[in-house]
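Researcher: Batch entry, complex prediction.
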Amino acid sequence: MTSVATSINLKNDLLTGMEWNPAQMRDFFRLTASMKAHPGKYRSALAGSVFVLIFEKPSLRTRVTFEVGIANLGGTSIFLDHTSAKLSEREPVRDIAKNLERWVQGIVARVFAQETLEELAANANVPVVNALSDKFHPCQALADFFTLEERFGGLRGLKLAYVGDGNNMCHSLLTIGARCGAHVRVATPAGYEPDSAVVAEAKRVARETRGKIEILRSPAEAVAGVQAVYTDVWASMGQEAEASEREKAFAGYQVDEALFAQAAPDAVFLHCLPAHRGLEVAAGVIDSPRSIIYDQAENRLHVQKAILHTLLS
Ligand code: CP
Ligand code: NVA
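Model: Structure tokens for the complex:
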């Protein structure tokens, strides 16, 4: 099988995105571009491999893109729906991992707690991929920066403003953005800042890559002159009971036309989806020609194919 030369030698799991160094990140995007441009070359890359997809939370994009991607590479997937019963309710996560490693070549898991992923990875001798946890969403952020690279031709020094909750999406944009040498500005209300350890790690990596990480309060300050404006829901999956309290806390943090107009003239709007028009983003922004939300969604497929190919090579 033909594939692009790569220096990627990743740890066998993708749990946080911190497994990747900046050089590996560049190679990874090169591989993703090759897999997107030449899908036929990779159609047997995972022939004979079976993956289990364990989801404790609902999904449209992540589930479909993993299932389609695995099929495109000649592999097979088994979906385990844990949306009504958490993984550990029937048996310990350790036992689940130790069973699965006997049958399948990889585990893709969407979980409430990052610790569940760590426990799966510690006990399964097959790659584990984070399909979203409370802490990180690396597959999404990789697709987002790949999409921005396609759009702008490079990521070094690219300015991205994330406005909203300091959540899993924010953490992954910081972690991956720092490795890409991007300038990531985050604006959150008080009490909703990103995790300080994640910010410190991103700042350390950004010093190496000449990227920049800024944690701010003011959406206008964050958005001024940037090429990319990103937002996510104010109440993530599992936080539904806090929705009305959060709507009050996030008043003033909507990406509306007036805020978006303060970005660069060629700026694009990003959102991982699902989105709530009229809350974190105005319909006039997310449904405008500047919105690249469906390019992001498309690239989930290509990025995840490259993740699986990399981890199993
Ligand atoms: N963006 C994203 O992960 O979408 P799903 O929750 O539908 O998988
Ligand atoms: N922060 C959101 C992302 C959804 C893709 C959540 O966790 O629900």
